[in-house]
Structures are given as C-alpha cells and as structure tokens.
Write a sequence for this structure.
C-alpha cells in the first residue's frame, strides 16, 4: 500500500500533539499510577511517530520494550510500594518553584532553538530518503539488523553484558536484608 | 682519616721534625677524648658507711641508707667557686689516670714544639713559612679552602708559649682540682682548649684560624661555667660566649671583604695580594676595623671587655691559661698575622692603638678598687692587653708579641699564685666550716708567713708587671712605650689623621696614657700584694691554724714561671742593655714575618732613638714604676682593713670604681633589656605565638574548617536541589554557546 | 519533517526537565527522565530518516540501556523505600554532609 506523504505528515503531527499533551498531563498528575499511564500514552504516540519517520522496527520495539516492559516495571514498583494513591503530603513543589521551573524550561527551549538554528543542517525538509529505501530493500527489521550484526556487533555484545550486570545489580540491591540490621 | 700531605717539599723544613706539626694539636685532642670518656663515668660509688655521706649539710646527701651512686656525678656535688662548702668534695675514681693523661699530652706537645723549634733554629734564615696542606676542606667554586697548617717564626713563638705555659698550668691543676668530682671533665675541656688554640696559631688561612678562634671561645664557655650548678657561673660562661660572638661577627665580615676583594683567604696569598689594595684606602681600613672588632671581643678590649672579669667564676688555673696567657692573646696574634694589612691602614692602626690605650687606663682605674683578688688580676689582664694592642696598633708588632710572651709568664704566675692563696684559704675555711669569701683580700692579710714561696714568687711577678728592671715586664713595656714615642714622628701614623686629630698628637697622647696606666698598674698590684701578704692576718683565729703552702705539684710550676718572669725579658734586650749579640733576639727572629710591615709603618727606617732620648724614656718608665710602688706602700695601710663581713660600704668615686663604672648595668639597660624585650614581645608573642601559631598553624586549620563548613552547607543531601543545580548549569553552558 | 521532529523532541525534553525540577516523588522523577530519553530517541530517529540506519541503531542501544537503568534504579528506590518508608525526595537527605 502506497501511503502518500500527506498521510505521513498528518499522522506525524497528530501523534506529535498527542504526545506533547500526554506529556504535559503526565507531569502534572498527583497520582503516580495516573502519571504512569499517561506516560504510556506518550510512548505509544512516539511509537506512531517513529513509524511515520520510516523506522517501523524502532516503533515496534518502542511499544514492546518501553511501553510494554519498562513502564510495566514502573507500575509493578508503584503497586509493590503501595504508592498508587495520590499522596497526602505535597508531592509537587509550590507555585513559586513551578513558575521558576517553567522559566528555566522555556529558557532551555529557547537556547536549544537558537543553537539548532545557528548550527543546523542546511536542508531541513528532506524527503523520504535513506530510511525509506532501506525499508524497501531489506525490510523493516533488516534495516537495523544488517548494521547491528556487522558494524555494531561489539556494542551489541557489550550491551548484553550490561543487561546481565543490570539484572544482577537490581537483584542485589532489591534483596531483602532480613538477618543483618543494616 | 687519611691525611694526604701536600708538603711544600721545596721548603727546608720539610724533612725535619716540623713535618710532624700536625701532631701538635692532635695530642691534646687525644687527651680530650680519653679524659672526656672518663668523665662520663660517675665520680664515685659511695657505700652506706662512707664518711663523706654524713659530711654534707644538705638533705640531698642524707641518703645514707641508699648506698647508691652519688647523684649526677659531678653536677650536684660541685665544689663552689667562692668557698661555698655546702657539698662534700669527692675525688673521681679515675682521677689518677686523668692526672697522668692530662699533663702528659701537653708535655708531649711541648717536647715536639721544642724539637720543631730547634729544627727551625738550625736553619738559620727562613723567609718562607712552611705550609702543610692536609685535605681540601671547602672547595666551593672560586673559593678553595684547604685544611692547612702554617709554621713560621710567629706561630712558633705562640706554640712554645701555649704548650709551655699550658703544661705548667696542667701540672698545677692536678693539685688544685684534685678533690673535684668533675676532674676528668676539667682536663678534657682544658686539653680541648689547647688543641683549639694550637689550631688557631697553626692555621694557614683565616678560616682555619677561625675554627680555632671559635673553638677556644667554646672551651672558654665550658670552663668558665665549669661549676654550672651555680647559676652565676653559668651566666658568666654565657656572657663570655655571647660577647665573643659579637666580635666574631666582625672577623667574619673582614673575611668576607677579604675574599670578595682578594679572592683568597690564605695568609701567604693575602699578604702577597695586599699590595694591590690602595694604601690607607677605605677598603683596607674597613677590613682592619672589622678584624679589630673580632679582636676586641676575643681579647677583651673596650667595648667588649665585660666578659673577662665575670670569667673569674671559673677555676683559677683556667683563668691563668685562658684569660691570661693564651686565648685573650689570640687577638694580638691575629693582628700580628695580618700585619701586612694593618700596616697599610694607618687610621685603623691608630684606632687600635687608641682603644688599647684607653682600655689600659680604664681597666687600671677599676683595678684600683677591687677587693676580689682574681678581679684585680682580671682587670690587670684587660689593662695589659690594652698595652699589647697599643704596640700592634703603632706598628711595633714585635713589641706586642714580646709583651704577649712576658705577660703570659708573669700573669700566669700571678693567677696561679692567687690560686695557691685561694687553695690555702679554702682549706682553712673547710676545716672550720666557714662560708666566707675565700677570694676577698679583706679576709686575707699577712699570708707571707704562711705561704712564703707564693709570697716570694708573686712579688717577682708584681715587680715584673710593674716594669722594674731586670724583670720581664720592664723590657716589654718599655719597648712598647718607646715604640709609641718614636713613631710620633716620621711614620705613616704620624702623617695620618684620626678623627681629624693629627696622628702625632694622638701618639703622644697614647704615650701619656701608657705612662699613666703604668703608674696605676704599679699601684694596684702593690696594693694587692700588701693586702694579701702583708700586715695583720684577718682570716680568723681558727682558720689561721690551717693555712699552709700548697703541695709541690702546685708550687713547682710557680717556681718555673717565676724564673721565666725574671729572665724572660732578656728575649728582646734593647740596645741600652744589650751585651754581646743578645740585642733584639726576638726582633731578629720575627723579622721575616712582620719586618716588612714594621718598616712600612716607620717609612723604611729602623726607629732608633738617640742615646739620650732612650735613657730618658727608659728612666722615665722605671721612675714611674718605682713611684707607683712607693705610693702604694706609703698610702695604703693594710692594718686598717677589716674582714669582708664587717667592711663598711664604699661611697663616692670609690664606689663607682668598685662598681666598674656601672658599665655592665649600662649594657643591661641599653642592649640586653631591649633585646630581651623585643624577643619576648615581638618575636615570641608577636611572631611565634601570633603569626606562626595563630595565623599559620591555627589559621590554616580554621581555614580548612571554614571551607569544609561551606562545602558541608552545600551538601544538603537533597537530590532535588542537585537536579536544580544541574539544570541551571546546563543552562549556563548552553548560554555560553548561544552568546558566542 | 525533520524540523518538526526536532521541535517535538525539544518540547518533550523540556517538559521532562520541568518535571524533574518540579516533582518530589522519586518514581515520578524517574519517569520524567524516561521521557527525556524518549525525546532524544525521537531526535535520533528523525535524523536517521535521511542519513542512514546509524540513528536507529543508537536508539536501539539507548532503549536497552534505559531498560537496564530502569531496573536498577527502581531496585534502588525499593531499597530506599524500605529504609525511609517514603519516596518523597525531600525527606531523603541521608547524604547530607
């Protein structure tokens, strides 16, 4: 099915706005569970955006790993610690701090813009190019797989070690230390 | 130590006994080592039944039940210097060994000195000094200092005097110090002193001389404060050393200037290079003046004479050796050594002569009123040293050395004689447990009948010092005064100006002062003899029974010195008294060393007085001496004296003389107290406590604490704060990029 | 679409920053960090659209690391909760020096 550029652009904008709105809502929720779920929404939107950017594999991985695993872990922990209820004690800083944070954020945004403008790529409206072609050539997965297992094989292996370390670390840190009073 | 002899093999003395001259200081040094080791052994071990244990009056000695070592060997049991008999006397266990080693090394040194002297005499004429270099001591860039000894006629004289008189004094000390617990320590220090003194006179360069210079100063300190458990004695030792140090500063500056301008410090090289310096110029004058400052410190001239009277706190033989015969003459020796330099600086020479003359009369006036027999002799020494400096100051270097030699004889005799007297007085007081001052003349009197030998010998010395012919002092003193008179015209000194005054006027004034000092010398010395040996005895009825002559180990050296004082003057007979080739023996002997310098001062002519003038000068000197003795005999009545305990207070000018013109008190106020005040207030409280302790040590600790405190305040432990700081930091960095 | 993607990414990142600065709940802050990571992933993917698969590879690794980090971080938070019975960062100042 040939999708027109308009299809891609429209969806991209749509899901972009959804993502931003979800993010804003996520940041302002009092309940951790609600916040988590809104974050999941943001991630779904991002996944869609990835697909619109000719990275379907990454989009799927985003759903599987981020939304499906990481956020689930978050929710597990929230449930485990029984933090689901909106907290009694003020969990968000007061008005003044929020305003300052807002200003800081805006300043950072402005700076990022200025910097990207000044040093940015000359052509900002590129057509579907490399990514789209490689999807047609090697398929969605093949795009990533070819490079991953040839050029980036070493980082791939190291990442597996990293994951192992993370697993062991998480188990060690999270273990209940019942006997010795620490 | 491997001594690599770098012998100037071309020198005629090379193969003779003189090649062993390095042994001369080494033998006394060996004595020092042996005696020093012995001194580390406790004096004695006392048992419970020892009579000495019950003898002492102090509770400290009542440890009859302990039977332990006498505590701290010789320190607590010091035999006090002023008849202080609180502590029992204790003879050291190894005293016998020390009695042998101490004088023996000196006698060996003297024997070697005689052998070397005979070798030198056998040569006939010797124009170059014999230098032996042992090792390179300080090769430092352009400064090449070798440890080297130099033997010439001048050092030979000094060596003979030092070892000869030294041996006699060592033998005397065997008897004098026999009951002192610190016996080996005493001989160790005495031997060390002689070793250093020999290094001083044998040194071939100023630094080697300076080693000996400092060393004798050290030994002087050690020996003056020998009985240091009495604080006054320790203070006297300190005073001597510190005042000496001030002089040493002068000598060091002179050495620096010499090196900076001549590039060398060896005597031979300096004498050769001195001709390059401008005659009478500022440089030579400065060098000589600074050198004289050193001499003023070492030889007790104004303004640094104040340590010598206090130095009488040491044992009497020490006063005889160090403060009469040898150490204090080091200054005269130095100037004679540097004759080349001094003869080139008339102003400096005049200064030396003026200071010498003023010191001579100043000290003589103080000596008129002293009651302590040793103090009289101390001021007499200062006065006679003044004479020696007058001599070397006017360029009559031979006369100065001559007086040095004769003075060594009769002053050592006087001191040892007074040592005999004090020894007898101590013995007498010891028997009755009297604690009076054994050295005060008011407690003596009429000792002639008890100490006849001492009386006779000391009269010889007194006549010698007063300048009565044919005894020693007459010839030397006459030669000095004659030299001054003869150089008052036709000499570089007469042509020079001292502080604007023409030189000849200064020299005549010096001559007059010299005569006046001679008169006073005769008076106070006769006074001393009268009060001590003549008239009724004031010691006390009980004590009188125990007064007696010292053993022959002590009187023997006195006899030898008496003979020397009698005939020693014949070393340098003037033309008037000379017979068959005996004229000016010392003059001719020293001629290769100081002759050219002397001639330079007298503008090339040998100073000869016309026959009449010479008779007048000589006659005048003798007349002055005789008048002085007669004045003393007729005006002073020993019968009027009362013992010290009952003596009335002095008043008026006599009080001023007795209190030494309050010079010590003036120094205290002017120098000592401000120094102590600054040390306490500024250096101690201000810098040490305030700056170093407060600011640097405590302050740096406080700073570290403050920084830590700030750091701690920053570490709030709040992760949220950290996040804020992080983001603000990112903003700043991005901002930097944006702005740029 | 690159410019828009970058714009979205920047905005999402800023929202994440504001979230970190404003919130006190440890888990919420952690989730804001995840949001920031996602924003960066978006940038990479947007660039890789024109310049080849390297960007996507990087996103791949980024997600992996994020997963590992999430696991360990949550373990830490659990451990912290066990000690302090709270995840409110204001009350956790054990590191105060």
């Amino acid at each position: 099915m040939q999708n027109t550029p308009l299809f891609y652009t429209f969806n991209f904008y749509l899901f972009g706005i959804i993502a931003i709105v979800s993010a804003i809502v996520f940041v302002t929720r009092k309940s951790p569970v609600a916040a988590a779920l809104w974050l999941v929404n943001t991630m779904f939107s991002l996944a869609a955006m990835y697909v619109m950017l000719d990275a379907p594999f990454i989009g799927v991985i985003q759903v599987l790993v981020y939304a499906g695993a990481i956020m689930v872990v978050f929710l597990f922990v929230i449930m485990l610690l029984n933090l689901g209820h909106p907290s009694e004690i003020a969990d968000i800083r007061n008005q003044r701090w929020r305003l300052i944070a807002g200003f800081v954020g805006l300043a950072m945004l402005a700076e990022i813009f200025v910097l990207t403008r000044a040093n940015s790529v000359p052509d900002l409206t590129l057509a579907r190019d490399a990514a789209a072609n490689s999807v047609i050539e090697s398929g969605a997965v093949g795009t990533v797989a070819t490079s991953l297992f040839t050029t980036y094989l070493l980082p791939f292996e190291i990442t597996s070690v990293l994951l192992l370390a993370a697993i062991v670390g998480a188990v060690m840190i999270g273990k209940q230390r019942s006997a010795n009073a620490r | 130590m491997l001594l690599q002899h770098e012998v100037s093999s071309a020198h005629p003395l090379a193969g003779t006994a003189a090649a062993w001259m390095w042994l001369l200081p080494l033998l006394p040094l060996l004595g020092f080592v042996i005696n020093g080791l012995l001194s580390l052994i406790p004096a004695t071990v006392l048992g419970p039944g020892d009579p000495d244990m019950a003898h002492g009056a102090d509770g400290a000695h009542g440890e009859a039940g302990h039977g332990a070592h006498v505590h701290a060997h010789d320190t607590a049991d010091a035999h006090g210097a002023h008849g202080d008999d609180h502590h029992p006397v204790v003879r050291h266990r190894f005293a016998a060994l020390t009695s042998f080693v101490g004088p023996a090394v000196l006698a060996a040194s003297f024997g070697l000195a005689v052998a070397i002297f005979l070798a030198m005499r056998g040569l006939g004429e010797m124009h170059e000094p014999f230098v032996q270099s042992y090792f390179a001591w300080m090769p430092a860039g352009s400064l090449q200092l070798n440890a080297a000894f130099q033997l010439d006629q001048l050092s030979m004289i000094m060596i003979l005097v030092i070892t000869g008189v030294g041996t006699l004094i060592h033998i005397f000390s065997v008897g004098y110090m026999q009951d002192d617990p610190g016996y080996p320590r005493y001989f160790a220090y005495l031997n060390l002193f002689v070793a250093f003194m020999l290094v001083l006179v044998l040194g071939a360069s100023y630094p080697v001389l300076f080693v000996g210079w400092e060393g004798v100063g050290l030994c002087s300190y050690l020996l003056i404060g020998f009985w240091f458990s009495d604080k006054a004695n320790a203070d006297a030792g300190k005073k001597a050393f510190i005042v000496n140090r001030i002089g040493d500063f002068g000598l060091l500056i002179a050495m620096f200037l010499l090196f900076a301008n001549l590039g060398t410090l060896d005597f031979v090289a300096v004498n050769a290079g001195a001709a390059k310096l401008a005659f009478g110029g500022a440089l030579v004058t400065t060098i000589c003046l600074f050198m004289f400052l050193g001499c003023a410190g070492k030889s007790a001239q104004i303004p640094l004479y104040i340590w010598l009277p206090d130095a009488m706190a040491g044992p009497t033989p020490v006063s005889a050796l160090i403060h009469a015969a040898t150490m204090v003459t080091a200054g005269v020796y130095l100037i004679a050594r540097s004759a080349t330099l001094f003869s080139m600086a008339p102003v400096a020479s005049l200064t030396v002569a003026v200071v010498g003359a003023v010191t001579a009369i100043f000290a003589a006036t103080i000596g008129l009123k002293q009651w302590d027999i040793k103090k009289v002799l101390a001021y007499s020494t200062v006065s006679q040293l003044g004479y020696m400096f007058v001599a070397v100051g006017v360029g009559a270097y031979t006369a100065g050395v001559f007086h040095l030699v004769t003075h060594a004889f009769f002053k050592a005799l006087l001191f040892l004689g007074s040592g005999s007297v004090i020894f007898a007085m101590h013995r007498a007081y010891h028997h009755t447990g009297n604690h009076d001052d054994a050295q005060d003349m008011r407690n003596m009197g009429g000792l002639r009948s008890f100490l006849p030998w001492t009386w006779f010998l000391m009269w010889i010395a007194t006549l010698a010092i007063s300048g009565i012919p044919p005894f020693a002092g007459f010839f030397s003193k006459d030669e000095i005064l004659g030299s001054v008179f003869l150089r008052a015209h036709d000499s570089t000194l007469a042509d020079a100006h001292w502080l604007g005054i023409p030189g000849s006027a200064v020299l005549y004034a010096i001559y007059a002062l010299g005569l006046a000092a001679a008169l006073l010398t005769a008076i106070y010395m006769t006074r001393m003899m009268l009060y001590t040996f003549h008239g009724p005895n004031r010691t006390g009825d009980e004590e009188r029974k125990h007064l007696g002559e010292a053993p022959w180990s002590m009187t023997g050296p006195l006899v030898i010195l008496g003979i020397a004082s009698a005939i020693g003057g014949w070393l340098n007979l003037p033309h008037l008294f000379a017979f068959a080739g005996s004229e000016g023996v010392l003059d001719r002997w020293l001629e290769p060393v100081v002759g050219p310098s002397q001639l330079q001062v007298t503008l090339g002519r040998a100073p000869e007085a016309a026959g009449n003038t010479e008779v007048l000068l000589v006659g005048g000197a003798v007349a002055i001496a005789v008048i002085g003795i007669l004045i003393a005999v007729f005006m002073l009545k020993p019968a009027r004296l009362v013992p010290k305990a009952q003596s009335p207070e002095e008043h008026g000018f006599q009080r001023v003389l007795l209190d030494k013109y309050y010079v010590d008190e003036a120094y205290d106020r002017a120098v000592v107290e401000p120094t102590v005040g600054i040390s306490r207030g500024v250096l101690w409280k201000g810098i040490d406590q305030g700056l170093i302790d407060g600011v640097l040590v405590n302050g740096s600790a406080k700073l570290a604490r403050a920084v830590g405190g700030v750091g701690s305040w920053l570490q709030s432990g709040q992760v949220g704060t950290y996040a804020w700081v992080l983001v603000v930091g990112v903003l700043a960095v991005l901002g930097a990029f944006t702005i740029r | 679409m690159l410019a828009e993607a970058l714009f979205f990414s920047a905005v999402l990142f800023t929202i994440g920053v504001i979230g970190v600065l404003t919130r006190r709940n440890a888990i919420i802050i952690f989730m804001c960090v995840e949001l920031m990571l996602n924003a960066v992933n978006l940038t990479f993917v947007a660039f890789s659209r024109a310049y080849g698969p390297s960007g996507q590879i990087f996103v791949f690794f980024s997600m992996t690391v994020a997963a590992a980090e999430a696991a360990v971080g949550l373990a830490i938070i659990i451990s912290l909760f066990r000690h302090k019975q709270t995840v409110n960062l204001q009350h956790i100042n054990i590191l105060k020096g």
